[in-house]
Amino acid sequence: MTDNGLAWIGEHWYSGAIVKGGMLSDISLTAVRGVDPVDFVVRLGADRGMAERPPLFKDFGRRSVSPGDSVAMFGRSGEWTYVLEVERSTWHLVFLDRLGQDTLVEQGDELVCLDRFLHESPWVLHVDAAGEVSSGEPGDSLLETAVPPGDRLGTFAALDAAVRRAGAVRDTFPGCEDPEDEDEELAKRLFAAVGEHLGLSLPRREIELGLLPAVHLPSPV
Predict the structure, then answer these.
(1) Cα–Cα distance between 212 and 219 in angstroms, integer?
(2) Is 65's pLDDT higher than 80?
């Protein structure tokens, strides 16, 4: 329970494990570099007054939140602001609906999203500081996509190299004893590589116990 990093999130991405008061499985992570945590959750639709004086996640009255809305934990790790949600990310819904993207990710921001989105395939998205976008499913290359992304800054190539070294791309994946565990092992390797490459680490104990601040994010669709 003391490990930070990100590998533990991937390890439990498909497990269905439940913890009292916090999060363990089906966690969707959105992280943006260099943006104030309160400012970012306000961009996602949170009330600024509530975000400035947030309750802990374990104390948030989640039953009062409308279906389709989200109760998210949020915080800071080094240069990164992160938002954690269960089953789907608000960022993913905004991106799919093509609403408000220009205000959600401003020029110069870098964003990464690892989304458990249960109604579709899990999803990986990276927006670089030039506003270029690469996306795919876990196990995919960030570069070898149907429409290859622009990569003027080399951001996607650097992350792609990191996940390849970690065996988190299918053509570098070393396999596992039980083929049925492949998705879980790929997710664990993906989260570990992303966390290490970006310098992003999250406090597992506080997340499992719901000890991080929480905010209500209305559904954008």
Answers:
(1) 21
(2) yes
